[in-house]
From TrEMBL:
This is DMT family transporter. Keywords: Membrane, Transmembrane, Transmembrane helix. It comes from the Bacteria. InterPro entries: EmrE-like. NCBIfam families: DMT_1. The keyword DNA repair does not apply. PANTHER family: CONSERVED INTEGRAL MEMBRANE ALANINE VALINE AND LEUCINE RICH PROTEIN-RELATED. The chain crosses the membrane at residues 6-26, 47-67, 103-121, 133-153, 160-179, 199-219, 226-246, 258-277.
Length: 297
């Protein structure tokens, strides 16, 4: 692992974590009638706290793209998952709650899982696969699953809906990260003309906007502790699948390495859940179906 990739990825995670907390602080007061509507973004643009959170998120995405330009997706994605540590840090400052056993256990599992996966897997780059069928099977399957989760979330938006939306957004962001890396390679090889002549940058934009609507809808209907763990867990899993599936990323595949990689991913997911459910995470505002006329605060 190169130091620049580590610094860029962790800096991206910091911006993303802080940005998510600020966005949820604002989105929780949005009108429920804006659920899963682009109008939600227009309403939130009027809230300075949300705009600040978005600025941090954009900075995080830019730093993440720079990290992807110098490192493998299978390496960068687990590092980006540490955004939850920074989200918890800001939330803890807002609520004044100590970490306690749950917080320290989650922190240890997340950090240890990332370390175990990276050390055991030793992600390396390879030649991207040119088989279009494989590309579309992986991308289509991931996006299709995200659409299915979104459809289910519409029918249960005030119960498990926020979790399903966050999972869907995480899957889309994982694919977006993969296509961001492809777009960076196209720009390096062919400049601006080479970049704009491909479909990938437009897909990156579409996935980003769609994911943003899903995330903000999850933030507006439930506490951060319900949505952020699912978002943070789904994104690296989808990104790693794309990296190995069609970008040519390679991991060690001997029995011992595979066992440690699986344990590392499991520890990452469990650590994310423990941190996401920590009492320091903002509790949010309880909403009911008749709250469509709530004013922005």
């Amino acid at each position: 692992m190169s130091v620049p990739v580590l610094v860029l990825a962790v800096s991206a995670a910091c911006c993303l974590g802080f940005g998510f907390v600020l966005q949820q602080n604002a989105a929780q007061r949005a009108p429920l009638g804006d659920f899963l509507s682009p109008r939600l973004l227009l309403d939130l643009m009027k809230v300075p706290r949300w705009v600040g959170g978005m600025a941090l998120m954009v900075a995080g995405m830019a730093l993440g793209a720079a990290a992807l330009g110098h490192g493998e997706l299978s390496l960068v994605e687990p590092l980006l998952a540490t955004n939850l540590l920074f989200a918890l840090t800001l939330s803890r400052h807002q609520t004044g709650r100590p970490l306690g056993r749950q917080g320290w256990a989650g922190l240890a599992l997340l950090a240890g899982g990332v370390t175990a996966f990276v050390v055991a897997g030793q992600p390396t780059g390879g030649r991207a696969l040119t088989d279009p069928l494989r590309h579309w099977l992986i991308i289509g399957g991931t996006v299709g699953l995200a659409m299915l989760l979104t459809g289910c979330a519409k029918r249960s938006r005030l119960t498990v809906g926020p979790v399903l939306l966050a999972l869907a957004a995480g899957l889309l962001y994982g694919v977006q990260d993969a296509l961001t890396r492809v777009s960076g390679q196209r720009f390096t090889d062919g400049g601006l003309a080479g970049l704009l002549s491909g479909w990938q940058p437009y897909a990156v934009l579409a996935l980003g906007v769609t994911g943003l609507v899903l995330v903000q809808s999850a933030f507006e209907t439930a506490p951060l502790r319900m949505s952020l763990p699912a978002l943070t867990a789904a994104q690296p899993l989808a990104g790693i699948a794309c990296g190995i599936g069609f970008l040519g990323d390679r991991l060690r595949t001997d029995t011992g390495a595979l066992a440690w990689e699986a344990c590392g991913l499991a520890a990452i997911v469990v650590g994310i859940v423990l941190l996401g459910l920590h009492p320091a995470m903002p509790p949010g505002v309880t909403k009911r179906a008749h709250m469509g006329d709530v004013r922005m605060g």
